[in-house]
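Entry for adenosine-5'-diphosphate complex. Fields follow.
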Amino acid sequence: MERSTKENAVRQTRRRSIYNNEASRQRPIISFEDVTKKYQNGVEALRNLSFRIEEGEFVFLMGSSGAGKSTLIKLILLEERPTSGRIYVKSRNVAQIKRAQIQTYRRSISVFFQDFRLLEKKTVFQNVAFAMEITGASRKEIEEKVNITLSLMGLSAKKKEYPSHLSGGEQQRVALARALVVKPRILLLDEPLSALDARIRRNLRDEIRSIQREMQLTTIFVTHDQEEAMTMSDRIFLMNKGQFVQTGTPEEVYLSPASEFAARFIGSYNLLSKEQASTIFDVQDKGLYAVRPESIYVQEEGGIYPGTCSSPVPGTVISHQLLGNVIRYRIAALGTELTVDVMNRSSSRLYAPQTAVRLLFNLAEIKPLVH
Ligand code: ADP
């Protein structure tokens, strides 16, 4: 969506003044201490999990299906209780929250699921207002806040429309407006963008990130999409079998995967056994080597490469795939199939299958995985 710079600036100032919840950073708003969740069927969905999320942080929860992501979200929402361990939300031990208090507790948490449902018989305005009506706010307050939120989400012109007249992206914006209008302290997003096409997805992604920053909104975003996690998050929690296998900034997780699981999950690493690696470059350590596709160069005549590169290795192109500004090759070299990313510049040659090439490995970027 195109908006003028001025309009954007006004929107941002308004967001700040309306939503500034005096959040100070570096205070945990959510903390888990040694939390285990075992379901009645004996499945241990979370095992001895401990972490802290600071106020205003944007955390991505990633992991394959069954890793325990939804269970973690359900525990925060008090839809499930832990089998052991303690959970604090806003400095409060949630075990002490009684059934009758849950409704009030959940008011400061907004949840946004992929399969959000808008009320078909209500207009955009009414859909967003509905989220506030249940909080008992006055008519005047509701009207004011809903109008502001719709304007922040670029939906003012659509407020009298019914959901069926909106595009998928607009419907998603309405659902997001509904989650934000109640001015939550915590936002839980469970695969919110997965049903959208790439362009709308990118727009909404930017929108969510900027609202999150301006509102200093503590956000947990569940996703399978590594690009989303890499571009948006402050921190990534990578989960497998009920535990965190790695936590860190996107750069840390991407550049230094802690394990084979992390390397397989994040990015398109080439994983080379010690035997495979030793045919290509000198190996000192045992174990697996994780090689990023951009750490391998296709040698071109006259090209300049870092001094940390290995001697050239012969290879044969198997296939190529255009990924926007990158050409991703599959290349066979000394008995190993490799993924190699080359920047797609106007001067780049496109290598057809069967082309003989020479590969250089940037050894400074290749480290064995620590087990
Ligand atoms: P994710 O969201 O990462 O896909 P879940 O938290 O939904 O993972 O599930 C973690 C594990 O717990 C899975 O093995 C799942 O089958 C199991 N599980 C989830 N909910 C229940 C439940 N209500 N009863 C029994 N087992 C469950």
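NOTE: Residues 100 and 106 are 11 Å apart (CA to CA).
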